Amino acid sequence: MSAPFYLTTPIYYVNAAPHLGHAYTTIVADAMARYRRLAGDRVWLLTGTDEHGDKIAQAATRAGLPPQALADRNSSAFRETWRRLGITNDDYIRTTEPRHARVVQAVLQGLRDAGEIYLGKYGGHYCFGCERFYTEKEIVDGRCPDHQTPLTWIEEENYFFRMSKYQGWLIEYLEAHPDLIRPERYRNEILGFLREPLQDLSISRPRSRLEWGIPLPFDERFVTYVWFDALLNYVSALGWPDDERFRTFWPHAQHLIAKDILKPHAIYWPCMLKAAGLDVFRRLNVHGYWNVGGGKMSKSVGNVVEALALTDKYGNDAFRYFVMREMTFGLDADFTEEAFVGRLNADLANDLGNLVSRATTLLAGARDGEATVGPPEEEDTAVHRAAVTARAAADEAMADFAFQRALAAIWEFIGAVNRYVDATQPWALARDPARRPRLGRVLCTLADALGWLGIVLDPFLPEAAGRIRAAVGVTAPPRLADAVMGRLDRVPAVARLSGLFPRIEDAARTAGKAARAARPARAAADTPDAPAAPIAIEDFQRVDLRVAEVLAAEAVPKSRKLLRLTVSLGDEQRTVVAGIAEHYAPADLVGKKVVVVANLQPATLMGITSQGMILAGSADTKTAVLALDRDLPAGAKVR
Ligand code: MSP
């Protein structure tokens, strides 16, 4: 049975362009919607724009445009941003649409008829930026606490919604529904606020001051207060009151907002719903604020980070990953490009990108692994268990909107699989025909782990997850129910997938690399010691470096340069021919621990097959074999 799930973002003001803050909310909403769809729920994701009120009217005047033209332009900018970020919203509401205005007027008329709205007088300190009056207590040095701009004293006749009468009811409701607002700190903030008497809410603005709004149906001299108008988008978009969509989704409504708009959502909105005879939403999920360079970020302050510029530079998936992993849902976070690049390199390029590259390279190179798959061993079932644990932790975290925890759980699994590759050493198994069945099993486990990641990562990194699924040959739409390991007993055909997340330095160096490539090819050939072109870390990691103990050494007959060494790599012995006879006597080397390239193709020198190469440096006539500055067991990995 698929459960309905209705998720909303705030509708954003159209007086400015989308920025990091808007992008965060919309991205986490999208990740949540994708997660629930993956789990089989019937999801409706709503976003849109808030287009009425002083703020928009003033911005339009500044831009020399009619308000509707400004709204059209900026609403399209938001819509286009979400399209480019791959947001999967099911609807996009604009408060200037007739479908919305109709609902606002119907609700107002209903409340007026029921005696919930009355005409009164109000005088107060007003901030045009915030579109609200401030109480004496809230004012800081005569200025708006938010914008630090001077406030204007305004006295006017207005219509009021009898919100005060719902104070007792709201407190009881919050007590009976402890998870209505989460995280808990915001619930506590609202309960604290409700200890003071609640005022009635002015829900109109005189047309003499503001034309740009939805006219009150019962008094043409006024337009609707922008918050009263905006909050109703959550039901107008579902086609309240008669639409089937409203009946299906409203009982499952979850709102997602940042802390800046907690009060209208946690106080005005439930009271409005109650007065209008509608059920209260199921949950209000509140996140913290992104700060940039230690300061608060907002459109009116100006130091905004353009969402699109960032995603253009680093890619949608990297951007999504960073914001979800970096911010603890509910708390504030700092945005710095260094932190972004750090996480991209460590978590995406290194942990995930390398795993995918290593595993797909091994799998793509498997020849007849299908035919010989041994039974799972403890190492394999430990990976299966790690997948079960990660899924459970991710599910639990997502139920709490704890995106950072969900990702941390998935990265635990990625770490476990990387360690599994190190421990099972499939490249070593590949050298030993007797261990083919074990290799087959290890490859199965890796393919299985990739399949799992291709599903579970889908809500967070939709592009990368799609590429992983394609590499392992999965074409069916992903479902969370299929993220179960341990069912594979044939090695599937897998395509190599490397460079899923290039390291940032690589990108920065591309220009230098291109410049070097343009030089005459001779230059590099003529100077063998010239710095080589940069390689990706994955390329370096394909070189299997190991600590080796020299067990025996002897001169190769008839050769001036070569020594024949017998070395131990822990559980295996190898013959290595080294060109160091002019610099080392055989006896000098026995007992030494050196570093060997363990995965070089064997080469025959003076009739002896060399199964590796020992590392040595040289300058002028000197040569030095690389040794360890403290002891490590033979076979230890060098990186
Ligand atoms: N139009 C109202 C909301 C009406 S909802 C019925 C509004 N619009 S807004 O354009 O100012 O958007 C506010 C929302 O944008 C925040 O609640 C949050 O979702 C997002 N953010 C804006 N700046 C932000 C940060 N600096 N950090 C995190 N999110 C922020 O308020």
Our estimate of the beta-strand percent is: 15-25%
- Shape category: elongated
Major beta sheet, strand line-up: 3-2-1-12-13-7
Q: Termini separation (Å)?
A: 50 Å
| Uncertain residue segments | 509-528
Judged by helices, strands and strand pairing, the structural class is alpha+beta
Largest sheet: 6 strands, parallel
* Cα-atom radius of gyration: 32 Å
Q: Which small-molecule ligands are present, each listed once?
A: 5'-O-[(L-methionyl)-sulphamoyl]adenosine
Number of strands: 26
In which range does the helix fraction lie?
40-55%
The mean pLDDT is 90
Description:
The protein is an alpha+beta fold. Helices cover 43% and strands 20% of the residues. The chain is built from 22 helices and 26 strands. The strands form 7 sheets. It has a 6-stranded parallel β-sheet, with helices on both faces. Strands 17, 18, 19, 20, 23 and 26 form a 6-stranded antiparallel β-sheet that branches. Helix 10 links the parallel strand 12 (253-258) and strand 13 (283-287). It is elongated, with a radius of gyration of 32 Å. The protein starts with a strand and ends with a strand. It binds 5'-O-[(L-methionyl)-sulphamoyl]adenosine. 5'-O-[(L-methionyl)-sulphamoyl]adenosine binds next to strand 1, helix 1, helix 7 and strand 12.
In short:
With 639 residues, this protein is of the alpha+beta class. The protein is built from 22 helices and 26 strands.
